[in-house]
Amino acid sequence: MSGFSQKSRLPEGAPGIRPSQLRGGSCAAPGDRVETCLEQCKIVVADDSKIYRRLVEEVLAEHGYMIYFANDGREAVNAVADHQPSLVITDWEMPDTTGIELCRKVRHNQDSYTYIILLTSNTEKTQIVEGLAAGADDYLTKPFHPGELLARVAVGRRVTELHRQLQAKNALLEVLALTDSLTGLPNRRAIEDWTKRELSGAARYGFAFWLVMADLDHFKSINDKYGHEAGDVVIKRFAELLRENTRASNLCGRVGGEEFVVALAHVDRAGVQTAVERIRCGFEAEKLTFDGTTMRATASFGIAGFPGRGTPDLDQILRDADAALYTAKHKGRNRIEFAS
Ligand code: GH3
Ligand code: MG
Ligand code: MG
Ligand code: MG
Fold this sequence. Notes:
The chain has 10 helices and 13 strands. By secondary structure, the chain is of the alpha/beta class. α4 links the parallel β5 (115-120) and β6. α2 (73-83) packs parallel to α3 (99-109) and α7 (219-226) packs across α8. One magnesium ion (MG) binds at residues 215, 257-259. One magnesium ion (MG) is lined by residues 215-217, 219, 258.
């Protein structure tokens, strides 16, 4: 997109990866979706045979797995949805479904990767191929060897752990890619995405939308006089002020350098003027301190809007806000100008 002209650097202050949950408690006999609670690796065991549920439990429970039992397909689907297990160990034939059908359902619904092991008395290769094609990761034939079950579960656990780490890192990267590192505000890309969405909403539902371009005044001289770090302090404080004065339905961000954008919706011209004037006055009144030195700074603002009628043109709105900002600078800075 053309309008927002500067680039922000890569961010550092984004939310951390969610730690996996730890749970504890007492163990229960195999049966109706009983929780056998040891540590955090959750396994749903779906089998209509009580004997096999018990056999699986005997192998896994003492190795710290948290087991949820399901007697049939419906219970298994619910248990997977409720507990988001790392693994599902499923029987091939159950009263209301097949292990293959369960594989398909788990694959279809899942938010995070679940490793599926088919446990079957069926040694027919064609059926095993069918199971793997339906989404199973592995299979074991009944009667199973306890050590082999444990080993295959451990493989599954490693695979899901890797999947989940990757997923968490991707989520973090997504946040980082939209965050400005110095201020923690949304960056240029995030603002672009948001304003495009918001502007099309404004056109569809007929509400007003405003873009405010803000630029710190004589900022180069602040850097020259007090140093770059002091300049950063000023930028961060301005960002905080924007955040403090931005309602949940609006957005503010740093487009780069000492330039910021505020986007406001559902407000008239007088409302925008009041909101921006509050920011301008607040910043002007700030005593900014760095290394024991007190500094003062001001900012200029250019505002352009979409009235909620006609076809919006984001690039034009940005050009208009930029031009208004230029006028504010030209007229002496520390002031607000609306696009003509
Ligand atoms: P005007 O009132 O016309 O906007 O003047 P100005 O000095 O603010 O504008 P100019 O574009 O000449 O200078 C902007 C300065 O902002 C130059 C650049 O070094 C500085 N700058 C850009 N990004 C950062 C940053 O992340 N930290 C600091 N400390 N300075 C920055
Ligand atoms: Mg069965
Ligand atoms: Mg500038
Ligand atoms: Mg400036």
